[in-house]
Specification:
Bound molecules: zinc ion
Number of strands: 7
Strand content: 15-25%
Helix content: 10-25%
Number of domains: 2
Radius of gyration: 19 Å
Order of helices and strands: EEHHEEEEE
Shape: elongated
């Protein structure tokens, strides 16, 4: 019996437990699928609309105010994600999350005391919020423009496989 490979146009002879025509195809397809999911998350998440009382703050203070505003809902930590500059060129790279695990083992910034985000370049980032036990409260549901970038943090250092979704899509 011939099977259609879900990763490419090839058909291959059925063998129990074998879903893709090759291991390389399985890995490549998994990567493409993840990139597509990340891309959807990125384009479908809207930018946070600043309430009028925050609009007079400078961009640093407004980010802090928005994050601190979520403490009422139990938010204690946050994580920032972005698809890198390639995204602007139409490619669909996977999202990278900051801080990287090489910088902070749990890949979380603290909201109280407030820790400034350190990201590779200024621009909009997805925000995922976490509670006191580092549990995910909200998967990314808004973007915020972040301008506290630092030259030492590079986009490729960001973490790719990390928990930012309630429903596990990976
Ligand atoms: Zn294949």
């Amino acid at each position: 019996m011939l099977m259609q490979c879900p990763g490419c146009p090839l058909r291959f002879l059925y063998r129990y437990g074998k879903a893709y025509h090759s291991e390389a195809c399985r890995r490549q397809h998994g990567h493409t699928k993840k990139a597509e999911q990340d891309h959807q998350l990125w384009i479908k998440t809207a930018e946070f609309v600043l309430p009028s009382q925050l609009r007079n703050l400078d961009p640093y203070a407004s980010v802090q105010a928005v994050l601190e505003g979520h403490q009422k809902a139990g938010a204690k930590f946050y994580r920032l994600g972005c698809p890198g500059l390639e995204a602007h060129a139409g490619a669909k790279p996977q999202l990278r999350w900051f801080p990287p695990t090489t910088v902070r083992a749990n890949s979380l910034f603290s909201i109280a005391p407030y820790e400034e985000p350190a990201v590779p370049f200024p621009g909009p980032y997805l925000i995922a919020l976490f509670g006191a036990q580092h549990e995910l409260l909200y998967e990314p549901f808004f973007k915020l423009p972040i301008c506290t970038f630092n030259q030492i943090t590079r986009w490729y250092m960001g973490t790719r496989r990390i928990d930012v979704r309630k429903a596990d899509l990976r």
